[in-house]
Amino acid sequence: xxxxxxxxxxxxxxxxxxxxxxxxADPSRSIVEDYLRRGTCFLADDGIRIAGVFVLLxxxxxxxxxxxxxxxxxxxxxxIGKILVLHAIEMSREAGYRTIELGTGNSGIGQLALxxxxxxxxxxxxxxxxxxxxxxxxxENGIRCRDMIRLSLHL
Length: 155
Hints:
Elements: E1 7-10, H1 19-25, H2 29-38, E2 40-45, E3 50-60, E4 63-71, H3 80-94, E5 99-105, H4 109-117, E6 121-126, H5 129-133, E7 139-140, E8 143-144, E9 148-154
Parallel strand pairs: 4-5
Antiparallel strand pairs: 1-2, 2-3, 3-4, 5-9, 6-9, 7-8
């Protein structure tokens, strides 16, 4: 799929969110449903299917959190994730936020690289976050996901 055909848009009011994609980035349906209620979901589609998704959640004055970035597994490696992250940054800047933050698992090596390439800096670790908040163990890249790595970008 050519990246040029992607349209980035907010989820329409009566449109169901793409839970299959959102659950790729966060396996807890209850957590995903909670931040969908509180945040704004954005989609990347090519007119045929939804290729990717992200959610922006205002957290504090002048701060927004990027809580979910997911790309259809058949489309990995095509730069769609980077487009989503850069679009989230630009939208946050245009909306007047001064900081955009995110949290990702310690085992998400590709995600950590992507976020840092997009300008985010590691600002902390929430030890055992995924042990405390998720019923089932999560593994990525052969590594147990235990800790949340917190990243931030000043806009």
